[in-house]
């Protein structure tokens, strides 16, 4: 990933919308779906996530794909396995002050701050627009700053017919726990999962933070508390400093690192967690290609989320999906479901 591409396509205020607005539609010919071969007829890309079937394991990650309709002018987003829509909180959030995006070698830092219109607007407006262009179950990403907020938002989204899974972002700070992230403490992570499970019926996937000393312990804690699945990793904390001003580039000082630089770290954590729990694991972190997807699945992921790549190229998920059959054939893979965890000895 060239750092110049990041600044061309990322608007700190709304990453997904800016991507759709700034990439020239004249590039459509470079992403022609007619280039797909008949290889797809000879391999099986379908997988099942928490009992819900997916045509393929590719999921556009929350915070990089908006509510889906922003990308619908570029390609038929129903090609996706699914996508996780923008993180939703109880109340509207305007996000952190700018600048809140900083480029870095092989990735980017973001400190957007969960900007979203709040659960009421999401239910009344965003999900209706989403349903017009996406006709599969969608993953609902949820943020909160106390147990009650998580519970209320999850209860509200659990009522939505199109929501197939709830993805619980436990990297948010617990305002009643000294500001410590829910996801950095086994007890707090388990508490929020247990509370949400009391009020929902849809599969609950818990998104883990990598900024911990023992991610396997956190994974086991949320599994014991009732989680139906785990997704990982969220971004790694980092920062950049402007040499001219001698101040942090991000107004928030620190931000989450994503992009190709984090892939080896994410892969290792997926491997470790998948070997420690019995519930499905969704892998993410620096995924850029069909080869990366397969590597994540070999490590134990049932499905794979693609994040920062969408901000560089709005066709990223589609191109990965179209490339999968050919890459599978290249490596002698007839069914993706057969290779899940195959790297484990």
Summarize the helices and strands and which ones pair or pack.
Layout: H1 3-9, H2 15-22, E1 47-49, E2 52-54, E3 58-60, E4 82-88, E5 101-104, E6 107-110, H3 119-133, E7 138-142, H4 147-158, E8 163-169, H5 186-197, E9 204-207, H6 215-224, E10 229-232, E11 236-238, E12 241-242, E13 247-248, E14 255-258, H7 263-274, E15 281-284, H8 290-299, E16 303-306, H9 309-312, H10 316-330
Parallel strand pairs: 3-4, 3-16, 4-7, 7-8, 8-9, 9-10, 10-15, 15-16
Antiparallel strand pairs: 1-2, 5-6, 6-14, 11-14, 12-13
Helix pairs in contact: 4-5, 5-6, 7-8, 8-10
CATH H-level superfamily title: Aldolase class I
Strand content: 15-25%
Instruction: Supply the number of structural domains.
Output: 1
SSE arrangement, N to C? HHEEEEEEHEHEHEHEEEEEHEHEHH
* Main sheet: strands, sense, barrel: 8 strands, parallel, barrel
Give the proportion of residues in helices: 25-40%
**What does the average pLDDT come to?**
90
Please identify the structural class as seen in this structure.
alpha/beta
> What is the strand tally?
16
Oligomer: single chain
Low-confidence stretches: 1-37
As for the CATH topology, it is TIM Barrel
- What is the architecture at the second tier of CATH? Alpha-Beta Barrel
| CATH class wording | Alpha Beta
User: If helices are DSSP runs of H or I spanning 4 or more residues, what is the number of helices?
Assistant: 10
Radius of gyration, rounded? 19 Å
How does the overall form come out from the CA principal axes? globular
């Amino acid at each position: 990933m060239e750092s110049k591409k990041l600044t061309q396509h990322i608007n700190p205020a709304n990453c997904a919308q800016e991507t759709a607005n700034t990439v020239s539609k004249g590039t459509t010919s470079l992403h022609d779906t007619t280039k797909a071969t008949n290889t797809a007829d000879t391999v099986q890309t379908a997988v099942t996530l928490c009992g819900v079937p997916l045509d393929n394991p590719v999921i556009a990650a929350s915070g990089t794909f908006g509510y889906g309709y922003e990308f619908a002018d570029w390609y038929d987003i129903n090609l996706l396995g699914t996508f996780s829509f923008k993180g939703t909180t109880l109340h509207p959030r305007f996000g952190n002050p700018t600048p809140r995006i900083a480029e870095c070698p092989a990735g980017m830092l973001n400190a957007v701050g969960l900007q979203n219109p709040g659960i009421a607007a999401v239910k009344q407006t965003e999900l209706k627009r989403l349903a017009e262009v996406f006709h599969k179950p969608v993953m609902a990403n949820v943020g909160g700053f106390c147990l009650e907020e998580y519970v209320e938002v999850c209860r509200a989204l659990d009522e939505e017919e199109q929501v197939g899974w709830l993805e619980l972002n436990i990297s948010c700070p617990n305002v009643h726990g000294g500001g410590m992230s829910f996801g950095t403490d086994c007890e707090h992570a388990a508490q929020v999962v247990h509370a949400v499970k009391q009020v929902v019926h849809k599969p609950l996937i818990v998104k883990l933070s990598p900024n911990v000393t023992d991610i396997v312990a956190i994974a086991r804690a949320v599994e014991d508390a009732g989680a139906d699945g785990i997704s990982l990793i969220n971004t790694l904390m980092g920062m950049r400093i402007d040499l001219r001003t001698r101040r942090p580039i991000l107004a928030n000082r620190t931000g989450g690192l994503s992009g190709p630089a984090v892939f080896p770290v994410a892969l290792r954590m997926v491997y470790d967690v998948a070997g420690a729990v019995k519930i499905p694991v969704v892998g993410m972190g620096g995924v850029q290609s069909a080869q990366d997807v397969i590597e994540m699945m070999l490590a134990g992921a049932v499905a794979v989320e693609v994040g920062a790549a969408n901000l560089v190229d709005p066709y990223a998920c589609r191109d990965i999906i179209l490339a999968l059959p050919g890459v599978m054939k290249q490596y002698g893979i007839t069914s993706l479901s057969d290779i899940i965890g195959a790297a484990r000895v």
